[in-house]
């Protein structure tokens, strides 16, 4: 007699995702898919943007949160739910709970962006600020769940959440049936895992590529080790994918179904966010721009047609300002220069005249006239300039030197 080892069933199936899609009908939007001429030219094949940044609450998180909470038993709903998040998951849980008539308590870290705190409260959740980092906030939420009996809603490590996120994959196949590559950002892994379940079940030849920020990339070492491992002190501007350890449930799916996980730099994330804003006219947070960053970093690596999932658009305005400036610098369109000039009436106006002739747009000027490093007749000026690219930066520097200025930095 032949004995075969029993194979455990997969944690999430295509039927689960299809069931989630029915549950989300009339709740989550079927978000638009926009083609990108710029990225298509760069990649050499059609590139489409799946705009989950235009989803209700501004990200895909509503899908998984709603499916998870809708699946609770009546007595569990009566006890309420609790979550911990710095932004997108908080808003998804808050709105899902309001739609289902469930009391929600959301713990957010001190220092979370004020717009995200306000939005979560406006969706009806009881927001409690605790801790300086998400790990402390998470511990507080789990303690609250243990004390009150509220159900803890994990942002990615649960089959119902993954099934809800997988509905993005079904929409991709409906909107772009000829797709050959799907590129998606990866934090804990819920979205990538859900998309992989849906897409691979129906179109196994489609390549799924996950993208992580290099400063918080827990999946590459985890996949190499064959188990989830933690990254100490994950650091990236892309807070939506700043997760120090993969979830157990999504990791098992990603290990089996996702073809590759790539990393991108902070410069690439900044440039991608800027490109989405300027070329696609879409406001996207750094985590949501990570698939575009991967395309910019290695455009020849993706077989088209390509679908890049823009997972969210909840970017703090203060961070947006910093990231845009960083993105301009990464593209050579932002120049900071420090120089010395003779301290006399009209000297600054003359300098600005030189920059005007060179077509450099002055964003900021700092003028120092008293400093031990300076001579009696010297002044130091630091200029922040907007330029048209690296070649223009070089032209501006040459123009300043030809005009007789000593460029220090």
Automatic annotation (TrEMBL):
Transmembrane segments annotated in the record for this chain: none
A single BP term in Gene Ontology: isoleucine biosynthetic process
Coiled coil: none
Gene3D superfamilies xref list: 3.40.50.1100
Alphabetical UniProt keywords: Allosteric enzyme, Lyase, Pyridoxal phosphate
Domain ACT: residue ranges: 336-409
InterPro entries documented for this protein: ACT_dom, ACT_ThrD-II-like, Ser/Thr_Dehydratase, Ser/Thr_deHydtase_PyrdxlP-BS, Thr_deHydtase_catblc, TrpB-like_PALP, TrpB-like_PALP_sf
Listed SUPFAM superfamilies: Tryptophan synthase beta subunit-like PLP-dependent enzymes (SSF53686)
EC number: 4.3.1.19
Pathway annotation from the record: Amino-acid degradation; L-threonine degradation via propanoate pathway; propanoate from L-threonine: step 1/4
Keyword Nuclease included in the entry's annotation: no
Superkingdom per UniProt: Bacteria
Cofactor dependence: pyridoxal 5'-phosphate
A Gene Ontology molecular function term of the record: threonine deaminase activity
Family note: Belongs to the serine/threonine dehydratase family.
Subunit structure: In the native structure, TdcB is in a dimeric form, whereas in the TdcB-AMP complex, it exists in a tetrameric form (dimer of dimers).
Protein name: L-threonine dehydratase catabolic TdcB
């Amino acid at each position: 007699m032949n004995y075969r080892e029993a194979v455990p069933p997969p944690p999430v199936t295509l039927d689960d995702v299809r069931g989630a899609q029915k549950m989300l009908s009339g709740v989550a939007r079927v978000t638009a898919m926009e083609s990108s001429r710029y990225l298509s030219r760069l990649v050499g094949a059609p590139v489409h943007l799946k705009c989950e940044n235009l989803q209700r609450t501004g990200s895909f998180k509503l899908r998984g949160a709603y499916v998870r909470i809708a699946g609770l038993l009546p007595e569990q709903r009566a006890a309420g739910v609790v979550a911990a998040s710095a932004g997108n998951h908080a808003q998804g849980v808050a709105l899902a709970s309001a739609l289902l008539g469930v009391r929600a308590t959301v713990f957010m870290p001190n220092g979370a962006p004020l717009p995200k705190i306000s939005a979560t409260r406006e969706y009806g959740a009881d927001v409690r600020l605790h801790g300086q980092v998400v790990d402390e906030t998470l511990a507080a939420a789990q303690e609250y769940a243990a004390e009150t009996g509220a159900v803890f809603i994990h942002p990615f490590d649960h089959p119902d959440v993954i099934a809800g996120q997988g509905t993005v994959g079904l929409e991709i196949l409906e909107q772009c049936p000829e797709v050959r590559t799907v590129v998606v950002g990866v934090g804990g892994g819920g979205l990538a895992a859900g998309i992989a379940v849906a897409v691979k079940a129906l179109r196994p030849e489609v390549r799924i590529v996950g993208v992580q920020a290099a400063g918080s990339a827990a999946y590459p070492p985890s996949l190499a080790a064959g188990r989830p491992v933690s990254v100490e002190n994950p650091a990236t501007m892309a807070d939506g994918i700043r997760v120090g350890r993969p979830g157990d449930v999504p990791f098992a799916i990603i290990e089996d179904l996702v073809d590759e996980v790539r990393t991108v730099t902070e410069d690439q994330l900044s440039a991608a966010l800027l490109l989405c804003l300027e070329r696609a006219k879409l406001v996207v947070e750094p985590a949501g721009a990570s698939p575009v960053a991967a395309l910019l970093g290695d455009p020849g690596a993706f077989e088209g047609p390509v679908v890049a999932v823009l997972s969210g658009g909840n970017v703090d305005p203060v961070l947006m300002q910093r990231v845009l400036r960083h993105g301009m610098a990464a593209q050579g369109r932002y120049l900071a220069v420090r120089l010395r000039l003779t301290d006399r009436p009209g000297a600054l106006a003359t300098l600005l005249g030189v920059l005007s002739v060179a077509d450099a747009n002055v964003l900021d000027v700092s003028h120092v006239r008293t400093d031990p490093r300076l001579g009696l007749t010297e002044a130091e000026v630091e200029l922040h300039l907007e330029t048209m690219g690296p070649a223009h930066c070089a032209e501006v520097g040459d123009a300043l030197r030809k005009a007789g200025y000593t460029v220090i930095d």
